What does this fold into?
Amino acid sequence: MSKLSYEHIGLQGNTVGSVTFKENIIEWTDRAGANVKKFSSNEIVDSKWTLFGPKNAHIKLYMKNGEIVRLDGFPATDFENISNYFSNLYGKPLIIEEVINLY
It folds into this structure.
């Protein structure tokens, strides 16, 4: 496995851009290419996959420094593919987080 990329992915507090899962790193870049954020797999403590709505999901990365990074806009149907990348590239599971609707 080399890399896996997605367009139209938001990073909380930033605009929409793209994300690439590479060996040992997750890289998010805004549309203009001016803002690049890199997250080392060594710094990820835990990761969660949460569905929001019928078609979309987000990934939360829990970092060693206590930061929670949220990447929004993944197709809900891509969990298995992304989960396999997490297991194979980062040696960590991507866990499904259940959200309870109180309404």
The chain has a mean pLDDT of 91. The first strand starts at residue 3 and ends at 11. The CA atoms of residues 46 and 64 lie 9 Å apart. Residues 3-96 form a domain with the PH-domain like fold (CATH 2.30.29.30).
